[in-house]
Each structure stands twice: as C-alpha cells, then as structure tokens.
C-alpha cells in the first residue's frame, strides 16, 4: 500500500506553502536544495516543515491538499498548532465572525 503526504512549509518570508507528495523526505530535499527554480519556495528558503499528515488514499490526500490551500492563514496556523477550537472558529463565516476573531497577524500569503 502506497503512502502519501500533505504538508505545510513555513517560508523565510513567513508565508506558507502547502504541498502533496508520495515521498516526503525526497520532496523536502528538493525544496531545500531549490531543485525547481519555478517552484514557489525557490526564493523563500530556508524552509521549515511545520505540519504533515499521512494518507493511504491518493484521492483523499489530494482533496485535503486542495482544501488546505483554500484556507486562510489563521486557519492554517490553527491546524499547525493543533488548536481545534480556533480551527472551528476560523471556519465560521468571515462576514459574521471575521474581524471579531482576528487577534493575530494575518500578513503574508495563505
């Protein structure tokens, strides 16, 4: 059975990069060495792996990667910190709760 990974990197500019791979160690080496000059992370090194999850179903892993890529910065940070209460709070409708719940910095890319 194959294993797949969804991961989040924190870049040197404090932005986050979300990716998907079937070999996390190899993919991290590619990011760190700058193998692909067209990759988002190329000029944002050094990088820190701040979160990853393992999957056995490739379609599930791809769906989770796409879901996380659509999240706000603060929602990603709640996931990274495993702060489930804040993750739920940040998932609520922004127009209803947005400005009231934003106590942290929201600068940088999602």
From TrEMBL:
InterPro entries given in the database record: GIY-YIG_endonuc, GIY-YIG_endonuc_sf, UPF0213_domain
Domain GIY-YIG: 2-78
PANTHER family: UPF0213 PROTEIN YHBQ
Family affiliation: Belongs to the UPF0213 family.
Name the UniProt record assigns to this protein: GIY-YIG domain-containing protein
Source organism (scientific name): Flavobacterium cheonhonense
